[in-house]
From TrEMBL:
Residues 8-123 form the Response regulatory domain. The gene is walR_1. This is Transcriptional regulatory protein WalR. The keyword Phosphoprotein applies. PANTHER family: RESPONSE REGULATORY DOMAIN-CONTAINING PROTEIN, STRESS RESPONSE REGULATOR PROTEIN 1. SMART domains: REC (SM00448). The modification 4-aspartylphosphate is found at residue 57. InterPro entries: Bact_response_regulator, CheY-like_superfamily, Sig_transdc_resp-reg_receiver. Keywords: Phosphoprotein.
Length: 126
């Protein structure tokens, strides 16, 4: 993808190493990346940063990714692409992520080629 630096991606994971790894990879690919480590942090960052896409872990303490996605959808409708990136990879997990408004669901460990293909597909629509 050309000119990826015009796209801002928010990576949210309570595992700071996981968030850092995904964030560094995306920065190397030319994206502007911000990381947060909680659902509350994600909600605040979306308001402040207006990212083009959010990559969100599901298993987080206090406010999990499902609740965070539900609140993001309530506040921002469907215009903000949400990608679940989680160790939860069962069919019921994917169904639930779709029901609360995620546009896609990737399973950890992340397949970086699949992630880039997914980002290209969402961000080229904008």
């Amino acid at each position: 993808m050309e000119n990826t630096d015009k796209y801002t991606i928010l990576v949210v994971d309570d595992n700071q190493d996981a968030a850092y790894t995904v964030g560094m990879f995306l920065e190397l690919k030319g994206y502007t990346v911000h990381t947060r480590y909680s659902g509350k942090g994600a909600l605040e960052a979306v308001e402040k940063l207006s990212p083009d896409l959010v990559i969100l872990d599901l298993a987080m303490p206090e406010m999990d990714g499902y609740e965070t996605a539900t609140l993001l959808r309530a506040n921002h409708g469907t215009e903000l692409p949400l990608v679940a990136l989680s160790g939860y990879g069962q069919q019921q997990d994917m169904r639930k992520s779709s029901e609360v408004g995620f546009n896609a669901h990737l399973v950890k460990p992340v397949d970086f080629i699949a992630l880039i293909d997914l980002l290209d597909s969402f961000l080229k629509k904008q």
